[in-house]
Amino acid sequence: MSNERNACRPRTAVWSVALGALVAAAVQAQAPRPETPLPAVPESLVGSLSFDLYCASCHGRQGRGDGPAAASLRTRPADLTVLARNNRGGFPRERVLGFIEGSTRSAAHGSSEMPVWGPTLRALDPSDARVTVRLKNLVAFVESIQQPTAPAATAPAAPPVDGAATFRTYCASCHGANGRGYGVMADQLRRTPPNLTTFAMRNGGVFPAERVGQIIEGAGPAAHGNRDMPVWGAVFKRLPVGDAGAQGRIDAIVRFLQEIQERPAE
């Protein structure tokens, strides 16, 4: 009898080990797999992505101050969609940029609850040019989500949009102030921005105004709308109508580009 018991013990030990392995495998299969963490600084420079990553937790995805962390803060985050309304219809672009990057002192930004994003991003991204454009694109996104302001009953007709100023605000960082493709961000992009002053020369001396307008709007080449260049038509459509709306801004940029076209040598 003693010999039979001793013979059974090895088989019992084997079954115990096998059973333990099966239980461990089942527990491991049911355990949640850790998610891959998002990068601190995304490759994309698009403003909406930066807003989702850095601002939405407090200000909400729509910028109305109702983010998931808002209730835990001592000071409720501001509704960013009414900045233009609270500024007599004009979006305070430079002041907003100052709040975000930290050059303008504000009790909310820089406290223990809200970091100053300028120094933070510059510590995470070695390219100062990329950080500058990222901050400007973030401000442009905040401008794009502004609630429309009620037009005055006797409001005068809006003046024509300044194409040169619009180009400098939205395009010059990549294409350069003169449109020749030497903007501060040119070296950081996957594709070198084209020389925008040679459209006419490359089109038999005729400036292709309609096609250029489509490129700006986002209906043209793939360079617009990728992670380097936002689709300006979509951005402009979310801005307050103000000085003629999205199409007015696009037309103004097209007129400016037509004015700076190179002429063939005679």
Describe this entry's structure for a reader.
The protein is mainly alpha-helical and 266 residues long. It has 2 domains: 47-144; 163-259, Cytochrome Bc1 Complex, Chain D, domain 2, CATH 1.10.760. 44% of the residues lie in helices and 0% in strands. The protein has helices at 2-30, 47-54, 56-59, 93-101, 117-124, 128-144, 163-170, 172-175, 209-217, 232-238, 245-259.
Computed over alpha carbons, the radius of gyration is 28 Å
Total discrete domains: 2
- What characterizes the major β-sheet? none
* Number of E strands: 0
**Tally of separate helices:** 11
* Gap from first CA to last CA: 116 Å
Order of helices and strands: HHHHHHHHHHH
Calculate the mean pLDDT score and round it.
76
SS-derived structural category? mainly alpha
Low-confidence stretches: 1-8, 10-15, 17-27
| Helical coverage, percent range | 40-55%
Shape designation: globular
Strand content: under 5%
Quick summary:
This protein is mainly alpha-helical. It is built from eleven helices and no strands.
What are the key terms here?
mainly alpha; Cytochrome Bc1 Complex, Chain D, domain 2; 11 helices; disordered N terminus
Detail the topology: elements first, then pairings.
Blueprint: H1 2-30, H2 47-54, H3 56-59, H4 93-101, H5 117-124, H6 128-144, H7 163-170, H8 172-175, H9 209-217, H10 232-238, H11 245-259
